[in-house]
Amino acid sequence: MATASLSTVQLAPGQAAWRRFRRHRLALAGAVIILVLVLGSAIGPYLLPFDDTYIDIMKRFAPPLSGAHILGTDELGRDVLARLMMGGRVSLSIGIVAMVMAMAVGIVVGAFAGFYGGVVGAVLMRLVDAVLCFPTIFLLLALAALTEPGLVTTTILIAATAWMAVARVVEAQVRSLREREFAVAALAFGSSNLRIMFRELVPNAIAPIVVSATLNVAKAILLESYVSYLGYGIQPPAASWGNMLNNAQIYLTSAPWLAIVPGVAITLAVTSLNFLGDGLRDALDPRMNIP
Amino acid sequence: MARYVVNRLAQAFMLLVIVSAIGFAILHMAPGGPLSQFAVSGQMTQDDLDRVTKQLGLDRPLPIQYLDWFGRMLKGDWGKSYRDGEAVLSVISSHLGATLELMATATIIAVLLGCWIGILGALRRYSLFDTLATVGAMIALSIPTFWFGLVTIYVFSVKLGWLPAGNRQTVGDGSFLDLLHHLIAPALVLALVETAMWGRFMRSSMLEVISQDYIRTARAKGLPEWRILTVHGLRNALLPMITVAGLQFPTLLGGALVAETVFTWPGMGRLFLDSIGYRDYPVVMGILMFSATMVLIGSLLADILYAVVDPRIRVG
C-alpha cells in the first residue's frame, strides 16, 4: 500500500506575504510609480540641461512640448520639469523624514501607554485624543504661522501633527501583546521593561507599523502640499510640489499647465503610497481588516 | 443611560481641559507672547510694555494665567482681534454661517452619494461597480483638495464658463439661484473626500450586517429580498454611520478651510488664513480653539446619539 504523499509546501512567512502582495496589482503598480518618482527626482536634475532656479524672462510661459522645455516654463521662465524634479526631492524627503519622526514619537508614546496602562496609559492616550480634536490643517497652519517657515520647521511641524494615529495603533498592539506568553516569559526572565517594550513587543507589531508608516508618508506629502500651497511651508526660490501650485491659480487661464503638472505629481505619489499601504496591509496581516 | 451620558460628559470636559492647555501653550509660543502686537507696533517703550504686562497679569505664574484664561474662555470672553478690536467670538460667528452652509451642503451630497455607492458595492461585492468604486475612493482620498478645486475652476469656469470661479454671490445680486450657482463648485469639491469616506464605511458596515444571523433567519422565513435588505439590513447598517459622522468632522472642517481658500468663500477657514496673514493671533487661536471644541462636541453628540439608537453601547 503506497502511502499517499500529500506534502504541503511550507512557505516562509516572508514568502507567503510576498505572494499575497504580488496578487495586489495596484499595490505593485504603486510601488513601481514611487520608485520612478524617487529615481526621477534623485537622478533627473543631473540629466536636464536646465537649472530649477534659473530665471529666463524672455522665455516665460512657454507651453509644454514647445521647444526645449518638455513641461514648459513658469511665470519667470524657469523650466517646469527641472522644478518638478527638484520639488520632488523636497516633497518626497519631507514625506519620508516627517514619517520617521512621527513614527518615532508615535511608537514611543504608544508603547509606554500600552505597556504601563493605568494612569500613564490614560494620560498619554487622552493627550492623543486631545491633539486629534484639532483639525490637522488648522493646527499645522497655526503652528506654521508662529514659526519661521522653512524645510526643517515644515518637516517637524508635519510630524508633530501626524504621530497620533501611529500611537493609537501601537498602543492597541502592545496592550494585547504584553499578555502573550513570550512577553510574560521575557518578564520572568528578568528583562527590563524597556527591553520588553522595544525588543519584544514593538517588533511583534511590525506589520501594522509598516502599514501605518506607508500611509504616513502619503499623509505627510499631502500636508506639505497644503501648507506650501498656502505659503507657509517651503519658501521660493526653492521648489516643492506644494509651492509650485502657490501662484498657479493666478495663471489658470493663460498657463494651466503650471497648475496641472505639480498636482498630477502629488496625486500620483499619494495614490501610489495609499495603494501600496493597502497592499502591504493585505500581505503582512490578512486578519487586519480596517476599512 | 443617564450614567453613560454623565460619564461621557465628564470625559469630554477633561478633553476640553487638555485641548485648552495645548491651545494656551501654542499661544505662548507666539513671538513676543500675547503682547506681540504692541511690541511690533514700535509705539511702546520697554517701560510701557512692562507696565502693560503687569496690568494684564502676564507676570503671574503660567498655571495661574492658564486658569484665568480658561475661565474667561468658558465665560465667552475670547479676547479681541488685533485688527479692529472686535471681540474674537463675534468675528468668528459672523463668518460661521458661510462655513456651515458649505459643510452642510457637502455633507448632504456625501451622505446620499456615499451611502448609495457603499450599499451597492456591498450588495454586488467584487463586481465591476464595486472595484471601480473602491479604486475611485482611494484616488479621491489622495487628491489634494485645493488642487481638485483648481482643476474644477479651470474646467467649469475657465473652459466651459458654467460656474463662477469663486465668492459666495455676485455683487449686487444675492437671489437664491445666484447663491446656489456659487455654492455648487466648492460644495462638490469639499464633498469628494467625504463621499469617498462615507462610501468606504457604508460598504464595510453593510457587508458586516448582511453576514449576520438575523439576515439568514429573515431569508429562511421567506421574506422578500427587498424587505430583508431595507428593513433588516439597511436600518442596522446605517446605525454605525452616526459614529462616522462624528469621526469625519475634523476632516470636514479642514477640507472646508481649503475649499474656502481656493474659492474665496467668506467663511471661517478664509478668516483663519487672513488672520494668519495679519498676524492676528487672538483670532487665529480663537478659531483653532473653536474648531477643536466643535470637533469635541461633535464626537460627544455622535456617541450619545449612537447610545440612544443602539442600547448595546450603553453598557461598559
Question: Considering the protein shown, what is the CATH homologous superfamily of the largest domain in chain B?
Answer: MetI-like
pLDDT average of chain B, as an integer? 84
Q: What is the CA-atom radius of gyration of chain B, in angstroms?
A: 24 Å
Sheet/helix structural class of chain B: mainly alpha
Spatial separation of the terminal alpha carbons of chain B = 11 Å
Give the low-confidence spans of chain B: none
Low-confidence stretches of chain A: none
Q: What is the helix/strand order of chain B? A: HHHHHHHHHHHHH
Q: Estimate nothing, just give the exact number of structural domains of chain A.
A: 1
Secondary-structure class of chain A? mainly alpha
Distance between the termini of chain A: 52 Å
CATH A-level architecture of chain A:
Orthogonal Bundle
Largest sheet of chain A: none
Count the domains of chain B: 2
Specify the oligomeric state: heterodimer
Main location (chain B): membrane
Family (chain B): Belongs to the binding-protein-dependent transport system permease family.
Protein name (chain B): Peptide/nickel transport system permease protein
Pfam family, one (chain B): BPD_transp_1
